[in-house]
Structures are given as C-alpha cells and as structure tokens.
Design a protein that fits this description.
The structure is a homodimer. By secondary structure, chain A is of the alpha/beta class. The first copy, chain A, is about 35% helix and about 20% strand. Chain A is built from 23 helices and 29 strands. The relative contact order of chain A is 0.07.
Chain lengths: ~700, ~700
C-alpha cells in the first residue's frame, strides 16, 4: 500500500540546495555521500556560484531545474531557508529535508522563521523534515540524505550482514540515531532506514514511526525520543505497531531533572513527564531500553529469532564458569534454566568427555567441540520440547579458528524453531563475526544485555494489546454542577463520583447537630465521622477524623470535637459539615488515581496504599481510559500483586471489582478531561472475592 | 616486603614438564607463549622424548636439571602428575602450576589423585596451583605461564596502553579470567597479573587475592569466583584490601539455582549461598558486578581517576541528545547533575554558539569544539568546586579526526583533580583510542556501565571499614543448659536470650490456672497471652495467640481457649504453658535474625517486619558479629530506612537501641556458632527515640 512518505524515503529525484565542491564541509559532503552510497536517481545540485559540481550540472535555483523533484535537501544559511522553500513549493517539490540549523533551538527571530516553515508546509502540502536535522539514510533505496560520517563508504570495505530481517531507526537526535545505526551494523544487523527528526517543523517522530510500521522492509523499529510533538500520529502508529506485531524498542531521554532541563533548552520541545511515556509504551508493548548497546542487542535478537513459546532457556557452553554466568544472567531476568531430563542429558553426554556437564547449563567442554558435540547439542535442543530458547556461550576471539562449520550450522539457523543466541565472553573477532554471519548468526558481546534481550523476547511473545474500555463502562453524564467551586471537599468529590455512576458507600453529611441521630441510625455502628470543608485539604492534620465510633454518646462527642478542632486549627475555613458513614470492612488498601499529562492527557494510576507506595514506588500508570481487563493487567504488574492473590493464607481479594472500579475511574477522567485534572481514591479497600470494594476517601481536583 | 608467592609470580627459572615441539597442542604452546612474551629467566623443558626443543636443551626429568627451579609448569597426562610432583618436591622446586586436567572435576579415582597433590604440598612446602588451571600471566615480570590464546603476541602489534595504574585479575575460571584481561587490554587498561585458580588443590583464590592486595604494581583487583575454598585467607586478604584502600571488583557466579547446580557439578566446589558472599563483599567494600563489560568499565574508571569528593557530575557533550542521555544515566545511578552557577555558565557560554547549552548537561556543540570550547570547559570544570566529576560524551568513531590535542589534554589529565570520564556513543575507533591513550584517557563505550562505574567511584570514596564489635558488647556465657532440647519454644528462646544478656520484656510462663492471677497482676493491662510448646512452630495457626486483653475475665477465658485450641489442633503436642506479658507499645516493626552460611558461618540479617520483607525482599545481611555502628549502617541500607527516620511526620525511631540489639544478637550468634544455627526476632518493635525497643517474639534454632 502506498504511503504519503514514499516519495520522501524513496525519491526518484533529489535537489541539493546549497551543494558545494568543498567535501570537507557539510554541504559538499552531502553530495559525496549520496553518490558514494550509489543513489540511483537523478541529483540536481543548486548553487548560483558553480556551473557544475563533480561532473553534475549545477543550477542557480530550484526554479531552473525544470523537472519534478521528489526531495529537496536544504543546506544553506538559516536566513535563506524560507525563501528557498517558497521556491520549492512554487515548483511543486514534494518533500524537503532541512539540514540547516538556527531555528527554534535558538529562540527569538530564529524561532519565528521555523513558524514560517510550518506555514509553508501547511499551505503547500510539501512535507518538510527538520530544520536542524541530520537527514536520513535509506539502505533499501540507497538514499544517503545525510552528512553523518557513519554513512561514509570506505573503499574495499565489505559490510558485515548477518540478518535478513532489518531494523529501522527513528531518532529525534541525529547523533544518536546514526550511532545506533553504526553499532547495529558493526554487529551485522541489517538496516532499512535511519532517520533523524530534528526540530520537527512538519514531519515528526510519530509520522516517521508510522512509516516504519507499515514498511515491508522493516521488521524491528528502534525509536529514540526526547519528547513527542506529533502525539496523535505517534499514538496511531503505536497502536498499529501493536496490532501488526512489529516490535518497537524505545529509548526516551529527559527522565531526570537534569535531562529534562537540557531537553527543554536544547530541542525547544517540552520534555514530557516520563511516567506518562512509560505508560503509553507499556500499553502498546513497546520495549523500553535506556542503554544503546542493550537496545541494539535486543534488536539483534529480535531480527534473528522466532518468538519463544515459553521462558525456559538452555545455556550451552564450552567453559564451565562462563556457562554458570550465562545461567545466572538469564535467571536474574526471570527466565528459567530447567534441569534437562535424563533422556536428553544421556544423549548429550555421548558427545562430551566425562568432566563435562549436561544438566543445564550444558558444558560440552573444548573437547566436546572438536568431537562435534557443540553442534549436535544445538541441533538436539532446537527440536527439544524441554526448552524454549538456547543461549550459546563461547569464546569467539580467535582470528583464525572457528567452532562451527557453515554447512552444519546454517541449515539449523535458517530453520530454527526457537531463539538461538550467541554470546562471546572474549571480545569477538571480526573473523568470527564474519564467519558466523554466513550462517545468519549475530555474535553478541554484552552478557547482561543478552539476558535482558532474551527476557524481552518472551515479553514480546506474551504481549497482548488490551481491549479498549467499552462504551457501557460509564455512561457520559453532565457533571458540571459538581465543578462549580474551585476546590472540592471529600463530600463534593464523592457526590461527583456517585453521580458519575461509581458505587460509593452510604454516607450522610450532617450540617446541624439535630441531624446526627438520623445519620447514626443510617450508618450503624461502628461508624466514622470526618469534618468536611473545601478549605481543609488534610483532615487528619486538623484532628478532623474519628474512626471506630461505637456508641451514640461517642458520636455526639466526636461531632463537637471535630467542629472545635476545625475552628481551632483553621478558623477561616468554611465548614460544610461532618460526614458520617459506616466503618469499612477490612480489605487490602489500594490507591487509585488519575492525573493529566501535558503530552498524553489523562492517565490512570494504581498502587498499594499506605506507606509502601511511597517507600517502594510500587505504582503502575496507563493512559486513560482502560478496560477492566487492562486494569487487571496493571494490578498484575504491581510488585505488591501477591497481596491481592491470597498472600500468606489470606483470602483472595476481589480483583474483579477493583478492576471494574479502576476502569470506571479511568473512563470518567477521559470523558471529562477538559474539566477534571485529578481524581484520587485513597484508599479503596478491596475485600475478599465476591465482597467488592469500599471507597474510603476520595478527592477530585478541577482543572484551572 | 617479600611475599611467599613472589617466587611463584616472578620465578627466576621455569621447568616446563611435558614440553613439546608441537606448537599446535597446548604443551607446545606453553613454551612458545613464554618465549614470545620475552620471559627473562631460564627455561628448562622436560620431556624424555626430545634432546632439545626450539633451541633449548630438553631434560628427561626434573631431577636432571641440576639447578634451583622456582616454578614448574606441569602439562602431562593426569596419571603422571603425582609422580612428577614428587620429583619436583625432592629436588626442591619452589612452586608448581598444574595445567593438566582430570582430577577433582572428574570425581572418583581422579579426585583421589588431587588429594595426593594436596598431601605433597603440605608435606614438602612446595606451593601448587591447579590442577585444571589455565595458568597465569605476569605482565610486569613477563611470565606467560599459560596456554590462553589471549596472551599470544602478534608480530608488529603495538599494545594499547592508556593507564599507568594496573589491574590484577584473579579468576577461578581461566576462560573468564583471560577474557577479562582481553577486554581490559582492548580498552588500554594496563594489567599487572592475570591468574586462574583451577581446582585449587593448594593455592586458592583467597591467597592469590592476598598477593595482589600487597603487590605494589597492582592498583585495582578484579576477582571472578564461583565459590571460595580458602575462606580464612580470603577474609584476611579482603580485610587488608579494605584497610589499604585497594579496590576489589568482584563477580560471584552460581547465584541462580541453575548456576549453583553447575557450580557444584563443574568445579567440584560447594557453591556458597550468594547472600553470604554479598554480605562479606559489602563488609569489605568490594564492588560487586555481574557483568563483564561493567566490571572492566569500573576497573578502567578506577585506574584513571582520583576518588571524587562528592556526587555532583558535570555532563559535557557536543550532541544535545547524547548529553541528556548521559545526564539521565548518571542521575538514575543516584548521582547529582546540578545546574551550574550563572558565573560558570557565563564563562562557558563564551566558548560556544548561542544554540549551545551551559546549564548542565553542557552542550558546547560541534562548533564549540573547533573554537577550543570543549577543552577549555574541561579545564574549567576540573578546577571548579561546583562538580566532583566530569562525564564527557562524544562521538569518537572517526578514524582520522580527533577532537583533542595531546598538548592540551595530557597536562589536564595528568594532574586531574577529579574523575574525567570519556564515553563515545558511536563505536570508538582504534585511532581515537590510540590518540587519547597518549593523554592517559580510556574511551568507554557502554553508557549504563559508565554510570554504574561513576556511582561506584563515589561509593569507594565514601566507604569506611566498620569497627569490629567490641568485646564488651555481650560477655560470653555458658548457654548449654538452654540448648538441651531439640527444638526451642518462644519461652525457651527468650530465656536463652535473656541469660545471654539481651534485654527481654517481663513475661511469665503460666503452667497452671492458679498462677494466672499473679501473672496478670505483673503484666498489667492490656496484655497478651501465647501458648508455649516445643512442638508448635506457628502459634497463630493453632489459635495460640490472644492480644489486647483488657480484663481479668478475658484473661481467664483466653487461658482456657488457648489450651483448648492447642489440644484440638495438635493433640500430640507437649504444652509448656501460656506466656503472659504486657502488650508492647507501638513501634516500627523490624525483623532481626541470624543464620549460618556453610562458607562464611554466622550471618546477621535485618529487615522491615511484616509482609513487606517478603514482598520487596528488603533485607540486609552482614557476617556476624557486627558493631552497633555497622548495624546502624545496615539499617541505613534498607529501602525502608525512611520509616525509621521520622517518616511522614512520625517520631524518629530509636535506631541507636535497635543497632545495639542487632550488634548483641550478632555477637551471640558468633560466640555460639557451634551450637546455635539460627536466631529469629520477629518482630522487634522500635519505639520513638529514647524509648528503646521491645522484642515481641523470638526463636532460637539449635544446630543439629
């Protein structure tokens, strides 16, 4: 299916605006890179100062070219860019990539020039990447529209290619994008595209991601972002990637205060709050990696492996210590390294000396290699139903010796039933990489990264896109009457939630002493009483809460005391009254909340209540709304999940009821995102299975 | 000062028992390696089949050599080894390293041969390394007593050396040991020694560690272990390393079930329980690393950096995205990346274009490099008191261009006031490594590893060896009367602890109904009653605990109910009586315990009590005994530490009293390690500062 960016990534003709004869400088290097990488289309250099460059006719202006141009690469001083783009638009150039810098990243007048670029794109329909971009590389189409030194072609260099499947790289930072490409290619991982987004005046990372998701030559996507600007396009692309099952490995920087500070100053983007990004990534099954080598290792494993059917790993080695290390590493990632059955062990033992080990890790020993045991064990494990993946741990530093014969290894790798991952504890030699590439093997060199990658592979295999929240979850209601005052009390908040359709405990606001009898009768003993005021945020701190009241006398004393305390601590607070309700039955204390992220809008959060949430930061976020199924998956991702599952002989908690509540709250936040900034239900008590949940306290915060 | 292993690591003469002319096989390779690495002493090949080898006279037997031999390298079939060693001992050979395998790792008769080797060492005083060892390399002394391919010298190869300080590698696995060496040297980190321990018949990893700790040519030690056998020597060496401040980076494998399974089968060693290893490592300030590249990165940073005075990092880059990534990475490791003062920012801004960033991360931009801004900023930051370390984030992939001039960089690096760490996001070229090595710079390539290394540097700087537990902590008492029965009840356990000198609550064991009045009077209300029986482990599960009893009537009813419940649930249990004591005041719930590790003996453990310990595995171990100071440091290392420090407005807990208790319990466990296997105090309630602690429940488990 054609994509609007086809002519951007596979242009039939390129105009190079600002072409130069000086290949030491960036403008000159661009032409040289295009030609060295054997761009097959026509190139039109544009520069009024030359009649020709490097054998190509050079034009004074784009208007002189006279043929249709798919892509203009613009590398001229910033002040000349807008004029050049106007000319491009006038002659119908389809796409432009602006390498020039000096726009939004400088602020002031320079930022205004970027606004003009946006306007040109909107008006003309010409698609524009950059400014301040490092351009892109299409390996498939042989388009090196970049000055990155990493795309330079050295005479006589034979590229290392071990994979048939390809990765695409989409990076807001060109430096990082091409560094990822550089490292991936050094491992022998084939690349389809590498594109840097720059200032994203028109084309953004989200739209580039969308291109890679639909691109048939791309199997795995690596995404490096500081902050997403084209959020809607990004979310569409993310969902599509999840739906078609194309893995996306994402690095999001600007996670720390310092990182965010720089992201704001450097890229002229508002760095998003990372929890929201992580929530979105989790929803769509993106693989988050904060390390370049780790990301590339995951990509290498994904491009060379079928998805595993389970989490059982065989670790195969020729060195005992290294095998143990391999087993430890995958175990620490939560994968299993099961002891093999006696039947398999006996088979393997035929192929190794007596001091080998067949239990798993399997150490066939160096002697086991020469006798063919290593290869035979790989063959056996690949067809065994006792393991789901194989980690081969070797020394591949030799520049002359190879443990494998291509004729034996290649057929197994080509038809592999499960991931077969190769790690060398010595630094792998180029010889070993090259020899093993012939069999389709990428040699990996960072053990922890390998363990993480094998774990991610299992997660990708298990990922299911959660169904959306159903329309029937919570009918849309007009809640504006509840959102008149600037702040809401617990009573106000609960009234809003009740009107929204969320089940709340039966409580009464007592506004005068003579109403207390009726309230006590309705609540029954034991009961709880709480002061209500829109001016008092923390009721406990003003002595505003009395729990476990068991007699009418206590209730009347408490009523007086609550009002007295409030008056004493907060004489200026307007008191609504005292909320009287039954004490909640016991249950697991959970906090459910929503908040609004500046990039992605409403998020739903769930965590274990009480002090633990804060101490162990055990909370899970997702973009709102979520279905009850997705809410249930959120609960499963909590470290405290066992508490809900009958911990230490306790009854299982009513996870179904809690999941429904989370879904309802999330739908409410999404429905009223324009008016509601935050909802906090803290705590909700989750009772035993079948007994539901009780909302103890709640707060709704209006948008200002 | 001379060390007993001097003649092992710096032999004046070497006999090569099993020398061969065939350099394709291991025996032949050993001679070739020795000579290629320019061993300066005399080599005496021993083999009855040759008159000479490679120009050296060859002897039929060691007894024919007739000159003193410092080191015999033994590479002959296993069955001939014992005889050859007897001859070595007879002629006074000082040391032997046995490369031959086929001993303990095979079991049976082969293992018995290893016992004979041990006997020869003991009897003769000859020190023996191996069997099944890969030998060692002394770079300083030019002794390549190993067949490892990694010590092969390629003609014309100029080694990359960036550091003047050197690392020593001690590894139980030769494959891993020499792989560490291989990777370290590829970075330009100088090596003093690399030694593999093999089966450790006589010389073990502990004694090798001891050598490296005292060795003047070694600055940092890398240790790879599966399980320590010479525990006493190891502990002496570990303490000495901590005392002299020589950093030890340790990798301990066999951490997972699978890893331990293989460690047991492969190396014929009992793999220790890793928590005990980690406790010992923590005590002596060892740097634990589970990844080879990470360990080497830490070593590289330690050999090139002075220790930082604090945790403030400046991140300096020429690429915005990479700088943010760097800042995120060190921040995630708990280091600070403070915004620089306006004064410093203004200075830096002179050296960069307007679109650079000076806040920190500092992006001088590519243009800032050509104008000298990068170098000037390094100079400025090195003398600034606003940061304690500098992380330089660059692309160093070019094979022709270099960002720095040696004349400018070398003087700063030679006199650097703080760590200046170089990371390249593209794969560093050999050209860049070589050029920067001239200034003493190691180029690092794994960002997460760099972040971890910088964090470890701060930890090394802050490490203080804890003072030992004083003799006065707990006087040694005869507790044997308490350890007569096979199992101890809570009452028995508390009696033992009380007699040992640990303050216990005032409780009474009521063995007959008519004693209850007195017990109630003594305890006062509210009180708690608990069934006591050596046959009942979990009192709660048999309805054996009643808390918060407030009247005499309740107490009598509880007494009857506790006995009834016990009889109903455990009719066969012998009942001691009912323990009556006051309800404890509120406090933070803590668990304190001791257990016995098969390698290191008694350990003390502390964690947050209640469900959290199990859910979040928030516990800290140390070898027992510990001083109160060390106990206090253990508490500080808990994730739950804020709970003791006045969490959310609560009073600070009595950490001093808790630390004293931990110290006392640890001393008790150490004093009676022969008789007591475990002590568990769960929970102890820690009251507000000055109000002490209350032991609620306790259990002592006898050794069987």
């Amino acid at each position: 299916m054609p994509h609007p960016l086809d002519s951007f990534f596979a242009p039939k003709s390129i105009a190079l605006i600002g072409a130069s004869r000086d290949i030491e400088k960036i403008p000159g290097r661009l032409l040289s890179m295009l030609r060295k990488n054997e761009y097959p289309g026509n190139i039109y250099p544009i520069n009024p100062n030359y009649p020709d460059i490097d054998g190509l006719k050079c034009y004074a202006s784009i208007v002189d070219v006279g043929v249709p141009i798919d892509l203009a690469i613009v590398i001229i001083p910033a002040r000349a860019v807008v004029g050049a783009l106007e000319q491009c638009a006038a002659v119908g150039v389809k796409n432009a990539v602006i390498i020039s810098s000096g726009f939004a990243e400088e602020g002031g007048y320079s930022a205004a020039m970027q606004d003009q670029i946006v306007a040109i794109a909107k008006r003309s329909g010409m698609r524009i990447s950059g400014p301040n971009a490092e351009g892109f590389l299409s390996e498939v189409q042989k388009v090196a529209a970049t000055f990155s030194p990493t795309v330079d072609v050295k005479p006589g260099h034979v590229p290392l290619v071990a994979t048939t499947r390809r990765i695409a790289i989409v990076a807001q930072s060109g430096g990082i994008g091409f560094a990822i490409k550089h490292r991936a290619k050094a491992l022998g991982v084939a690349v389809s595209y590498c594109v840097s987004a720059g200032n994203e005046s028109d084309l953004g990372a989200g739209e580039f991601l969308d291109y890679m998701v639909q691109d048939a030559s791309t199997d795995v996507i690596l995404l490096f972002i500081e902050g997403i600007r084209d959020v809607d396009k990004f979310l569409v692309a993310a969902r599509r990637a999840a739906e078609v099952g194309k893995p996306v490995i994402v690095t999001k920087v600007g996670r720390s205060g310092a990182g965010e500070r720089a992201a704001a100053s450097h890229t002229a983007s508002m760095a998003g709050w990372s929890a929201a990004y992580d929530a979105v990534f989790a929803k769509y099954g993106f693989i988050v990696s904060n390390d370049l080598d780790e990301a590339v290792t995951i990509a290498a494993v994904l491009t060379t492996s079928p998805l595993p059917k389970g989490d059982r790993v065989a670790v195969l080695t020729v060195s005992g210590g290294a095998g143990i290390w391999g087993a430890d590493t995958v175990s620490m990632q939560g994968l299993r390294v099961p002891e093999l059955s006696p039947a398999i062990q006996n088979q393997i033992k035929q192929w190794m000396p007596s001091y080998g080990a067949a239990g798993n890790p399997i150490d066939v020993t160096a002697q086991g290699v020469s006798s063919g045991g290593l290869q035979k064990t790989i063959d056996l494990l690949d067809t065994s139903d006792e393991v789901d993946a194989i980690l081969v741990v070797l020394s591949l530093s030799s520049e002359v010796r190879m443990w494998f014969k291509e004729a034996e290894l290649k057929p197994v790798i080509s038809a592999q039933n499960k991931p077969i991952v190769f790690y060398s504890y010595t630094l792998p030699s180029l010889f070993a990489r090259t020899e093993l590439a012939k069999s389709g093997v990428v040699v990996l060199s960072g053990l922890t990264h390998v363990g993480v990658a094998m774990r991610r592979l299992v997660e990708v295999a298990n990922f299911k896109l959660a169904p959306p929240a159903g329309r029937a979850t919570l009918p849309l209601r007009d809640l504006s009457a509840h959102l008149q005052s600037a702040t809401l009390s617990e009573f106000d908040s609960k009234a809003l939630l009740r009107d929204a359709g969320i089940a709340m405990p039966d409580e009464m606001l007592v506004t005068a002493r003579d109403e207390l009898d009726a309230a006590v009768a309705r609540a029954g003993f034991p009961l709880v009483m709480k002061i209500q005021s829109r001016d008092i945020q923390h009721k406990s701190e003003v002595g505003g809460v009395r729990v476990n009241i068991t007699t009418k006398g206590e209730a009347f004393m408490a009523y007086g005391a609550l009002l007295d305390n409030a008056r004493k601590h907060r004489p200026d607070a307007a008191i609504q009254g005292v909320l009287v309700g039954p004490m909640a039955k016991k249950g697991v204390e959970i906090i459910v909340g929503t908040l609004t992220d500046k990039t992605f809008g409403p998020l739903i959060m769930v965590g274990l209540g009480g002090i633990t949430t804060e101490l162990f930061r055990d909370v899970i976020y997702r973009p709102a709304p979520v279905s009850a199924e997705e809410a249930s998956a959120m609960l499963g991702a909590l470290k405290a999940a066992p508490l809900l599952d009958g911990f230490r002989g306790a009854a299982k908690a009513d996870v179904a009821a809690l999941s429904r509540l989370i879904s309802e709250v999330s739908v409410l936040a999404a429905q009223h995102a324009e008016r509601i900034a935050e909802i906090e239900i803290n705590p909700v008590l989750v009772h035993a299975e079948g007994l539901g949940v009780t909302i103890v306290d709640a707060l709704v915060v209006r948008k200002v």
